[in-house]
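User: Could you check the structure of this?
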Amino acid sequence: MKRTVFRYTVSIAIGLGLISLLCFFAHETPWHVIEILLKTSVAEPDDLSVTLFYATHLMFCAAGLCLAFQAGLFPIGAEGQLSLSCLMTSIVGLSFAPSALSFVAILAAGLVSSLAFGLIVSYFKCKKNAHEVITSMMLNFIVAAFANYMVSHHFQSHVSQNPETGVIAGRYWFFAPIFHTDGSPANTTFFLAILACIATWYFLERTRPGFEIRAVGKSVSVARNSGISVGKIYTIALGLSAILAGFGGWNQILGYAHKYQIGFSADYGFLAIAVALVARNNPLAVIPSSMFFAILLKGAPGLDIETDFITRDFVKIIQAVLILLFLVLQKQRDLSRSESATRSS
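Assistant: Sure, the predicted structure tokens are below.
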């Protein structure tokens, strides 16, 4: 444990050092860049609200990806699952008159549709031996096309020229804003996202299915010889991963926008891959990792305005440096473990 913390700390220090050097090469001081990122992301309530809203999406998606990654899977469908969840939540909300039953249907619609996405990936993985990267990527495109069709042909708002659905009834606006300012996107699903990360960690570390997920991720052959059904574990991991991403529909539709907007996502599902990798597939570490990437996402436009030599794309360089460093850290840990196993044998 101490060695892991030490390596994690060293990786962060090296990453900050490299990023500082890049700032100097770009004729900017690193503390000036940090000041801009913090000032435009957390200094004011309005900015902090947007940052927390971003972090909520990232936590839901990244916690789910941790489940899949620890099972040895690498799906990239969180973006499509999030979009499908938002779309179906809006469609059900617009299709039924407000009632207790329809509210339950709305809550379930986003999760069930997202789960269906994950189960399709699981089916092709278990039955057809299709790689989850390919199937989830293709499903992302299918979801995007389906969303375009449903909005433009059936649910286009009559009061807006933007490609978006109408607004769901006010009785469905369940999650309250955290900040009492106009248009504040941060809502109480932020706390639900934190609970989801904690629950995911508990599931992986303290339950039998979680142990089996980690066992399959370590070695499929050893897990199968131990009596673990690998197909069942893949289905559980991909299904739960999809459900967690689907909670983002609650954040977007029931907590903030109250309508589906084509192009609403700032690539939350894809950015969540980086969040999970930096967190080293630890759902608890996803919480600070999501906040960090949310700060970068919110603060990036400020670099265009308040610096002379760098743009918002510099944030992507920061993300890439950190991801590469943590991948190297993971590789070194795996090599040291294999060497230890070889010596003991």
